[in-house]
Amino acid sequence: MDTTVSTGTEDSVWGGGNRPLGASYGKMMMWFFIMSDALTFSGFLVAYGFSRFKFIELWPIADEVFTHVPFFHGNYPMYYVAFMTFILIMSSVTMVLAVDAGHKLKQSKVILYMFLTIIGGAIFVGSQAWEWATFIKGDYGAVETNSGRILQFVDAETGERAALADFAETLPEERVKHVASEGIWFEGEGYKTSYSLNEVVEGFKATPNILIRTEQLNEEGEKTLLDRKESLAKILEANQVVEGANLVHNEYGHRLFADFFFFITGFHGFHVFSGVVINIIIFFNVILGTYQRRGHYEMVEKVGLYWHFVDLVWVFVFTFFYLV
Amino acid sequence: MAHEHKLEIFRGLVKFKSNTQKIWGVLIFLSIVTTIEVALGIVKPRALTHSHFLGMKLLNWIFIILTLVKAYYIAWDFMHLRDEKTPLRRVIVWTPIFLICYLIFILLFEADYIYNVYKDGFITWNF
């Protein structure tokens, strides 16, 4: 290259107006933001990996946790999450079609595709809310031991999980929920379980076909099933009943699993929600013809970048939370 | 405004006539990959869950590689990295990859160490 030759171009290098990366300021800043956000998400996901490797032998199996599909009863692992993934990829496609239509300055097409993108995002956020609600509610119930380990129950004949309601006895005892206003002011119970520990233990002793499943994974990668004798010894370690999941107790297994589930999918869901809000703002701007008058639809492209990033993150969350 | 799009994917193996067509083509590809992932996750073939490579199940390696493939096509075709200038693309891609690899390396090794302390050390945590 003739860099030493003094020409007019040299002046413009120092005089500004030169774009070595060929990207506008706004787009570049969106990329900066996306990179820093990507590092935040990787921090979360790697922290999840850290906790998982630390408790590698007793981590819950995701297929056994997320088995529900709205309006259907039964055991359908993965299907609903796969559906959510597909919805998000689909809304990414409509977004990129909106950007493409924007390049061609076709206002009505941008409006249509932006609208479809917003609908897709709303379906995704709704699905995630449903998934949270199902996770918090729980399905079978379990007991927690003194050391915080979870014991689940299995029907010995069918090999299926047994719910607490299947075997717990109803004893003539009264259990009052401990609220902060009646007792020590800084202590209170978040929820009261449908059976007391005593009812579960007595019911367990009276029902011979119920076995205990511990968190420990065996060589087959499945949870260890104790025989009846070991189960009867193990139940004595129980100190409370757990139904559903929250930040402290988790009937599905290790409590950190629930913590990371709430934290990572929650943070991602928050991104989707804010993405939908930003999309709606831009959507109205498109309808008003702001970008048509401006002569370019770069704003659509910038929110598009953010929207695709949200999709990109979900691809990783899906793999590391549900598949691996 | 001139917007040129590179319309080839798979290193020129598949060429599209327009950007819109390329978008649908990439969608089909991503859907196929996701379907394979979900199918493998449900079936869990024994051959893949019982063979290990570098201490991880073969099935998990497949999941992670397919995820990176998906991420590549989302970034390259949906986020238009394919059409950006090479230096910008390299800055965006390699900086996080370097930092994330470091983070993964250091935290997972530490976690494995703690796992071994719990396992072999004189701490009773399951009582």
Nearest-integer average pLDDT of chain A: 88
Radius of gyration of chain B: 20 Å
Strand order in the largest sheet of chain B: 1-2
**Principal-axis shape of chain A:** elongated
Low-pLDDT residue intervals, each spanning 5 or more residues of chain B = none
Overall CATH architecture of the largest domain in chain A: Up-down Bundle
How many domain units of chain B?
A: 2
Q: For this entry, what is the oligomeric state of its chains? A: heterodimer
Looking at this structure, what is the CATH superfamily of the largest domain in chain A? Cytochrome c oxidase, subunit III, four-helix bundle
Work out the number of β strands of chain A: 5
Sketch the topology of chain B as an H/E string, one letter per element. Answer: EEHHEEHH
- CATH C-level of the largest domain in chain A: Mainly Alpha
CATH topology of the largest domain in chain A: Four Helix Bundle (Hemerythrin (Met), subunit A)
Strand order across the largest sheet of chain A? 4-3-2-1-5
Structural class computed from helices and strand pairing of chain A: alpha+beta
Report the span from N to C terminus of chain A.
51 Å
Tally the structural domains of chain A: 2
List the uncertain runs of chain A: 1-7
